[in-house]
Design brief:
Length: about 180
């Protein structure tokens, strides 16, 4: 699988614009290496690669996923298919939540509710996920999905999601290296 256009940052500051990880989200991640952890996980998502989605913004408790318009992602009327809108919303929320999970934990969607407000038509879609409550076992997130046309954003969907914090279950290579380092 090829890497997505968004390259892994050298530090959290290169993504969220603030040293120390608090950025503008108001949250502080319990994982000082959250940005690399999230980017690594996103890069391993074959589904996001398949549809051409990219991770475009990340801060503790918030995440943005962008998707350029492609005709092969549309339904019969030429709008981005609702399932695709849900996919990018799920990932934006999931990674917002994952940024608030401790090292060595992984994320899993338990459920989400999405309301389609308007057709997904435009040059691209942007899903902006944010954490509402980060608990020890569950994380509650919310997402807004916008269609962008000529620089103007139109709200096309809203989502609320529940995530499970999977403690002591590695998300992948990045977490395995962190766990090995902690055991030394």
């Amino acid at each position: 699988m090829s890497a997505l256009p968004f390259s892994a940052p050298q530090s959290a500051a290169s993504i969220d614009g603030a040293a120390g990880g608090a950025a503008t989200s108001g949250f502080v991640s319990p994982d000082p290496d959250y940005a690399a952890k999230v980017q690594d996980s996103f890069n391993r998502q074959a589904a996001m690669t398949l549809i051409g989605a990219t991770l475009t913004r990340l801060a503790p408790g918030s995440c943005e996923v962008s998707l350029p318009y492609r005709a092969d992602l549309t339904q019969q009327h030429g709008f981005i298919h609702g399932g695709i809108v849900g996919m990018i919303g799920d990932s934006a929320c999931g990674y917002a939540g994952f940024s608030m999970m401790p090292p060595g934990a992984s994320v899993l969607t338990v459920e989400y509710k999405i309301n389609m407000l308007s057709p997904g038509q435009g040059e691209r879609l942007i899903a902006r996920g944010k954490v509402l409550k980060a608990g020890k076992s569950l994380v509650i997130t919310q997402c807004e999905v916008f269609a962008v046309q000529n620089g103007a954003e139109k709200l096309v969907a809203v989502m609320q999601q529940t995530l499970m914090v999977m403690h002591s279950r590695s998300d992948g290579a990045h977490d395995q290296a962190a766990q090995a380092q902690q055991q030394q």
